[in-house]
Amino acid sequence: MLKKTKVDDETATGQAGIKKKSKVPGVMITQFMEELPEGKTTPDFTRKPIALTIQEGKFAYFKAIVVGDPTPTVTWSRANGEIIFHTDVCQQKYDPTSNEHTLEFPKVAPEDADTYKCYATNEYGRAVCTVILNVIEVGFSKTKELQKIQGEDATEFRKRLKTRNPDGTREEKTMDANEKVWEILLSAEKKDYERICAEYGITDFRGMLKKLTEMKKEREEEIAQFISHIRTLKPVEVKDDDCATIELDMDLLDSGSKIFLYKDGVMVPFSKEEGEGMKHNLKQVGKKYVFTIKNLSKDDAGLYSVDVEGVNVFSTDFKVPEVDFAVKIQEVKAEEREDALFQCVLTAPMNEINWYGKSALLTNNEKHEIIVSEDKLIHKLIVRDCLPLDGGIYAAVAGIKSCNAWLVVEVEKDPAKKGKKAARKTTIAGAGNDEELLRIAKEQQERYQKEMEEKAQLAKKAQEEKELAAAAVRAKQKAEAEAKAAAKAEAKAAAKAKRAAAGKDGAVRKTKKKVAGAGADGASGATGGVVGVGAGSAAGGAAGATGGAAGATGGAAGATGGGSAAGSLAGAAGGGAGGAGGVGGRDGSGAAGGAGGNEGGDVEGDSEVESDEDSFEDSDEDIEGEGGGAKGREGAKEGGEKGDLGGEGEEGGEKGEGGEKGGERRKRARAGPLVPDTVIDPGVHFHAGLSDCKAIIGEAAELECKVSSEECVGIWYKDGAEIQASESLTISKEGCFHRLKIHKVTEENAGKYKFEADGRKTEAEIAVEDPPRFDKEELEAFKAPVTIKKGHKATYKLSYIGREPIKVQWYLEGEELSSEGNINIETSDGTSRLLMMKLQHKDSGEIKIKLKNVFGTIEAVSQLNVLDKPTPPMGPLEIVEASSSVIDFKWRPPKDSGGCKIQNYILERQQVGRNTWKKVGPIGPEAKYRDSDVDHGRRYCYRIRVETEMGTSEMMETEDIQAGTKAYPAPPSAPKVASAFKDCINLTWSPPADTGGTSILGYNLEKRKKGSNLWGQVNPPNEIIRGKGFAVKDVVEGMEYEFRVSAINDSGAGEFSTPSEFVFARDPKKPPGKVLDLKVTDSTYTTLSLSWNKPKDIKGEEDEAKGYFVEIRPAENTDWDRCNSNAITMTTYTVKGMKSMAMYWVRVIATNDGGEGVPQELDNYILAMPPPVRPRFTDAKIKSFMIVRAGNSARFTINFEASPWPEVTWLKDGVPVSKKVTISNAEGTSQLLIPSAERSDTGIYTIIVKNIVGQETISIEIRVTDEPKPPGPVDLDENVPGTVTISWTASPDEKRDDRLHYMVTKRDSVKRSWNTIADRIFNNKFTACNIMPGREYQFRVYAKNDMGSSKPSESAKWLIPAKKEKFTVKMPESKACDLQCPPKFLVPLKMHTAPQGYECYMSCAVKGDPTPHVTWLRNNISLNTNTNYFISNTCGVCSMLILRVGTKDTGEYKIVAENALGRAESSTKLTVRE
């Protein structure tokens, strides 16, 4: 039975975590929900990783086996830092056969030692276990030495980087590759390390990481001198407006610090104003810095570095790929709720390009789908379910090239469908030219491959030319050296032969022996030269060969001379030349050659000294000299040849040395021809290889490739086996194109296909897919609309094929249906049926079926119409005519006709005052009726019903209508002045709403001067005004008039309207000018208050303003919205209903009788927000320390005020909080919640509230602890009579809790009760005094912390027997012993760090005779008389206790012990942690 403990672990919204213990010890399981579905389980470990201690450099691994349904996902983490997954550092693997998850370290290093956690997670829970890796460091290691050297190199590199001019700028020089790669790595993300190392040829990944860590630490120290905080480092990003940006956020300690921009180490000038014409621009918004590079070109590629006061803070590598658009995106017009497709073709392959919509970067999501073809040339963007808001400019950016086009979304114009949600369309706008794009992409691919081949051939040719030039130089140097050495040897041989002829005969044998030795040494010299070639460079080999030749020359001279010493001397000269050749070796490899040369040189010197006394005799020793020279020549020749070949000179040297193997000859082999050979035809090659393709079962699939020759014949293979044409497979050849076509694909056709021709081959894979598909005939029948009557049932049935499992979903008007109520869904093998019973008219709409499997999704749409009775006709009634003989009226059709066509309107009539209704009868489908059977003066009421094929609607009853009575019309609207001139005023008005039951025949118009009470008729009495307007010409210029109008019907003239506004009879006024001093006086999240001054009145140009209009425009729109429909006369206005934090443009327009003036806009856009307020915490008292028991929840709430809405960030010990911590932010408050606190959650939590005005931070220390575990065994020892030293093993929690301390209690056999003798002990030892002999003592030790105390650890019983018998000790006579000594500290004071508000206990031990006087001092001030400190001195153990430590107690504490013989001191420092 597993023990469960419910905790508030909000792993997701609405989920509660339940902690469970696993059957495997050390595994903790968290269950995410109360009850698990049937058959589902949380993750668990059946085998957990085992702790490992291993020697560095060995192979280390952890293994784990997990179970759970669904299958859990396994991840690893470490306590300190992140795991870097790299083939040389660490790898995570999974073996499906054994279900083992492993974490492997190929060569474990000391920095890998850490505590690792293994997580197994699925949707129902998570299991976690911990394992420790210990690494034993060994002695000398080449890797360490290499890292040490690299570290020194890094130091030198940093010193070079720091070489700056006095003003903080760098030296003007271009950076080399080594400087670039380290500057890139310093600013790169960890996931990019491997790519950067591969690009720049760094193979020692571990060494790089160690070196980089040191460099980062050093750079952080440098940056801290000028910058308090730096974050959001964005590398170069190309925008859609032909510019690139570099973004970073940093808080400068001094706002006046100089900022520099470098490209490849060379300073780049930039401007701080956008309007200036410089290429580089810096824009600062608050603490955000944005560098912009305009008018991009290939020359802009390079390493960009940002320095502050000479310190590099950020570097990013900007690469410009050679790519352009072969086909640009085109304008797309899409209907509402239709998909839109943008597509383009590149000139070179790219894995991805950037897509922008309305200047915002787009990513793959439900709204936008980004597709890349297999050849990486065709890139597509699909905008799903287009709405009017999606319209705008879309752009594609590839490298530094960009193109853009409009997306126009056409809104439904049918007024009947206006306001209704349009049906989802399955068509795609902008598609249809796929074949053309594929053709262009194929051409681009061929061109690109051709360019790559040409570049490869040029590079190969350049390499060959370089090698040939180097070989020619080597041959020339070799020939010159041989000629020079031979000439020198001949000259020396001739000179020595001449001197030797004059010598004495007695020294002949001695001279011959030495000359023979010289010949051998000459051969050794040649040998040494050859060895120099094998291990060193070609130059050394040439010189060594020359030395060998000289040695051979000497040997030949000895043979030719017929007993002459010249040959021997020449051999010695050859030895000297061999020495010269040996020097040519590189990296010390020419040492052997040098040694050989030296020997030859020494013999030569001896020969010269003794040659005057030498004479010639016939002897075998001449033959020895000749033989040695010959062998030396053979060895030198062979060794020289091998030296030319490279790497085999050593063997040649051995053969030359001593001449032992000189007789063996080998044919010389050359590394390559001195003259380039004729170019050989490489044979058939591919212009276009096979491409992988996806095929659908039952459809055709085709593979195609193009070779360089039309005569080429190739062979097709599938999975390594040759295939031939058959009924289902066709193999064809058309010119250079070879095709393989499968007419009807089956699953057996999946696999790897290969085409081979003339030794060249190309491969591709056919992946067979089986997406869901409908039967075409059934699909056409399904699409036909279905019409049924209310209460009946509708059935939809559709067959399909495809790879199971297939998910079937039915939708009605976009909402998914399920089998419940009147809906039944049945799905069997290959068929799905939807049955809808008791349908109502509201169920009408779009029916959709959606099928989905692993290969794709397909949809089919139909329409359902449910017929029902119509609703009643709609009012209000419109009376066309109500005369004495006829009543003519209209009405509105019903709101819903029930899906049927209206057949008739049925009318009934009742004369007011009677109880009977007369049936008028069906009158047809038109909503109007003319009743001529009426009596003059009578009133009538009508009932109207709608008739369709589904029945008759409810009735609509009209109001009473009177026939033939005098009903005067109501007053028209007040006349409006359309225009005014000095001799004419044009008026318009609207007809009355109540016409009196008859038609309006015309109007009477009257005028009145301002200040007069008399109205005069404008139109003649017998001539009524027929229209709704009139031009009044009987006016006097400069006079002011008002007008009124009355309507006339059959009954006569009605009442006059209200008078119009006064108007002057004068020519039109000029529109006013711009308003002045437009400004914002106040703002909130929803309102904006404006004020302005009247525009100037310029006679003849701008007249006085009579009113004002205020208009706003959201930043994302192009149309202005007018806030006030009528002009206001005030010069202040408050705009309401704004969106919070939205961006608006605002303008004010002045108006008068002459029209509207020029708008006056605010200079900048306005954000809908209150005036900026710097973040401020509003809590009066905020806790700075919190203690939480392990397993309980920790909750901390902070209240603040800020405007605009701030960004709230929580940090734990300076880094973002983990995912287990829940952060809840609301208006003016933020809450941190740790659902189930663990000891690892202990730390300092900091909240950062930041907006554009500034930021505010506050920290709280949360300590998660639990009741401590008891200490280990207690030992007792008596070091001083009358005392007992109690020692114990530390509690296991001591390392995890720096507040843990100990308490000691005592019980003796007399009192029998436990008494505390010591508390707040921070070490593991205590000395108890006043131990009485004859009493039995027992001690207990408790571990204590903020949560309480542990169970006690009890000592054994301690007894000092009492002395019962008196005895006499006879002390031997001895000299008096002087035990006096100066004070000396046996145990000095230790360093102390204590939390504020807690106790601090200091102690030390001192000896001295006589007993020294002890004085405690803080900052050299005595504390002995200070009552705030408890000071004691027991048997030389001096202690001091501070009950509540505060910041005032920080400082240096000193204890001074003095007696007559001397003085001793011990000091320490106390640090108080807040």
Description:
The structure is a single chain. This protein is α+β, with helices and mostly antiparallel strands and 1474 residues long. 17% of the residues lie in helices and 39% in strands. It is built from twelve helices and 100 strands. The strands form 22 sheets. Strands 1, 2, 3, 5, 7, 10 and 11 form a seven-stranded mixed β-sheet that branches. Strands 50, 51, 53, 54, 55 and 56 form a six-stranded antiparallel β-sheet that branches. Strands 67, 68, 70, 71, 72 and 73 form a six-stranded antiparallel β-sheet that branches. A hairpin with a 4-residue loop joins β12 and β13. α6 (508-535) runs parallel beside α10 and α10 packs antiparallel against α11. The longest helix is centred in the first third of the chain and has 68 residues, at 434-501. The chain starts with a strand and ends with a strand. Residues 1-16, 140-146 and 504-680 have low confidence and may be disordered.
Question: Which features does this protein show?
Answer:
single chain, 12 helices, alpha+beta, 7-stranded mixed sheet, 6-stranded antiparallel sheet, 1474 residues, 100 strands, disordered N terminus
SSE layout and pairing:
Elements: E1 4-6, E2 18-21, E3 27-31, E4 41-47, E5 52-55, E6 60-69, E7 73-78, E8 91-95, E9 100-105, E10 114-122, E11 125-136, H1 142-161, H2 177-187, H3 193-200, H4 205-223, E12 227-238, E13 243-252, E14 259-263, E15 266-267, E16 280-285, E17 288-294, E18 302-308, E19 311-318, E20 325-327, E21 332-335, E22 339-346, E23 354-357, E24 360-361, E25 368-372, E26 378-383, E27 392-398, E28 401-410, E29 428-429, H5 434-501, H6 508-535, H7 538-560, H8 566-582, H9 591-610, H10 620-645, H11 649-656, E30 686-688, E31 693-696, E32 701-707, E33 715-718, E34 721-722, E35 729-734, E36 737-742, E37 751-757, E38 760-769, E39 773-774, H12 776-783, E40 786-789, E41 794-801, E42 807-812, E43 815-816, E44 823-828, E45 831-836, E46 845-853, E47 856-867, E48 874-882, E49 887-892, E50 904-911, E51 918-922, E52 928-931, E53 939-948, E54 951-952, E55 956-957, E56 961-962, E57 976-980, E58 985-988, E59 1002-1009, E60 1016-1017, E61 1029-1032, E62 1040-1049, E63 1052-1056, E64 1063-1064, E65 1076-1083, E66 1088-1093, E67 1107-1114, E68 1121-1122, ...
Parallel strand pairs: 5-11, 21-28, 22-29, 31-38, 40-47, 75-82, 93-100
Antiparallel strand pairs: 1-2, 2-3, 3-11, 4-6, 6-9, 7-10, 8-9, 10-11, 12-13, 13-17, 14-15, 14-18, 16-17, 18-19, 20-22, 22-26, 23-24, 23-27, 25-26, 27-28, 30-32, 32-36, 33-34, 33-37, 35-36, 37-38, 39-41, 41-45, 42-43, 42-46, 44-45, 46-47, 48-49, 49-52, 50-51, 50-53, 53-54, 53-55, 53-56, 57-58, ...
Helix pairs in contact: 1-4, 2-3, 5-7, 5-8, 6-7, 6-8, 6-9, 6-10, 6-11, 7-8, 7-10, 8-9, 10-11
